[in-house]
Amino acid sequence: MESKKVTWLELFSDLLFVAAIATVTSVLIHTEDGEIPVEYMAKFVLIFIPIWWSWVGQTLFTNRFGKDLIHHRLFLILQMIFALIMISSLSTDFDSYFIPFLIGYLGLRALTAIQYVIVARSEVGPNKQVALFLGKYFWIGIIISLCSLFFDSWWRYFFLYLGIVVDIIVPMFGRKYLMKSPINSEHLIERFSQFTTILFGEMLVSTIIIVQPHPGEWNNILYGSLFFILIISMGWQYFDNLDFKIDKQIKSTGHRIIYGHLFILMAISMITISIRLLFEEKMNPTFILVFIFISMTMYLLSTLFVFHSYRYSHAKLKRHQFIVLTLFLLCFIAMIFVKASVLSNFFILVMMVVFFVIYAFISLK
Description:
By secondary structure, the protein is mostly helical. It folds into two domains: about 10-180, no CATH class; about 185-365, no CATH class. It is about 75% helix and about 0% strand. It has 13 helices and no strands. It has helices spanning about 10-25, 40-65, 70-90, 100-120, 125-145, 155-175, 175-180, 185-210, 220-245, 255-280, 285-310, 320-335, 345-365.
């Protein structure tokens, strides 16, 4: 498989999208009576998805057809401008910023679709079929989302997200074309790993700022150290799997890598927020334990989903390893039934660290 080099402009673009994800994640900091309101959790998911898909769309185009040429650079720079428009409109008061958010999102998606149309003119064979298919059918989702301009109230969101859903599932319907022109697995894995690296770093920095110690406050230092160990364990498990345990030469559509990473990235954001909420010690014990359980389970299942099918046969996890991880996760549900006075937030954080250390050890053994 031909090697494809990641350009500096792609990495620069990643910074914008990671900044957007960090901004969206801050929505989850809003709490009422020791819980994150359902409204804010819904906003987190609904804003997160179009940001992720906008980045994925251009990344997939670059993976198959991208070249470090002047006109490709200009398209990417234009996309970054629309990304800035979308990022500047991220707010808990989503209604007031709906129009700029829509302009930013649709601008990003339209530029990607246009690139497919242009490249189809010079490609031949399966590559031409893929470019024509995606360049044609991505416009369906774009047009549906555009229709949200003509509605008020919840109808505008219905059409916005209906278009996004259609946009996301278009590649699934084009599988017969995509299999004839498979993605460059090594490049796609590298792109997602780079994006995830920046997200890890962004979330670590944002949390360290919160737990920044003051003279004599060793508790802050201890919390920061434990969170650092947790991030290192997650990174160790994630990146060593990518480097040593999976076959990067597998020819596929890349759907597992693409859609699985939506939940990996969301889980990283949710785990980071759970650490901050534990540190502030203002949360309802039952709520925070359930939130942590959901976040960690999402991370476990999504990483298994992404890596398992790409692992070398001798490196696939065994049944007893799955059982150990499942039992440990269930401990967080069991803790809900223990008196709150017995469990401290510090103990919960220690349990989270132990889980990710065990997961790293098991998956890399």
